[in-house]
Design a protein that fits this description.
Blueprint lengths: L2 H12 L6 E4 L13 H4 E4 L4 E7 L8 E7 L9 E6 L8 E2 L5 E5 L3 E9 L9 E9 L6 E9 L1
Antiparallel strand pairs: 1-5, 2-3, 3-4, 4-5, 6-8, 7-8, 8-9, 9-10
């Protein structure tokens, strides 16, 4: 078993089915990771207060994709917070279908972004599907994420 496959398997075995990682933006969130054309891989919501972008870090190929979210509340200089949604333990997703991104708003919870994706599972390869849900509470700045795992 390759090191990457072993790492992915360890990640999957060690995390609950709903586990996702929401972290502050870091080196994975650089603008050079937004695939071209940018118009197809970024969108804004909430009157422009929430901006989301697809990030493709290219490597590791089994976990290169992340969802970047710029959101309120704004800091003292007017900057938005930056959150990065990935699968966990520093890994992203094997694929994210940004074109299929949908959004819904619930005043009690916030703005929920949903999009299909894939995980790399060593025993199955890329033959799985999931829906990632990321909810942004614009008042507190909290971003939570989970997914629904399915099989094709």
């Amino acid at each position: 078993m390759t090191r990457l496959a072993a790492t992915a398997l360890a990640l999957l075995l060690g995390l609950p089915a709903q586990a996702q990682e929401v972290s502050q933006c870091d080196h994975r969130a650089h603008a050079d990771g937004i695939p071209e054309p940018w118009e197809a891989n970024t969108r804004s919501f909430a009157n422009g207060e929430v901006r989301v972008a697809l990030i493709d870090r290219i490597e590791p190929a089994a976990g290169a994709f992340y969802l970047l979210i710029l959101h309120p509340p704004r800091g003292v200089l007017g900057e938005r917070r930056c959150s990065l949604v990935g699968f966990g333990s520093g890994m992203g997703y094997a694929a994210l279908d940004f074109a299929a991104l949908t959004a819904g708003y619930d005043p009690a919870r916030g703005l929920t972004l949903s999009l299909p994706g894939r995980l790399y599972l060593p025993e199955e390869g890329f033959t799985n599907s999931l829906i990632i849900h990321a909810t942004v509470n614009q008042a507190t700045g909290q971003v939570t994420a989970n997914h629904e795992l399915g099989r094709e």
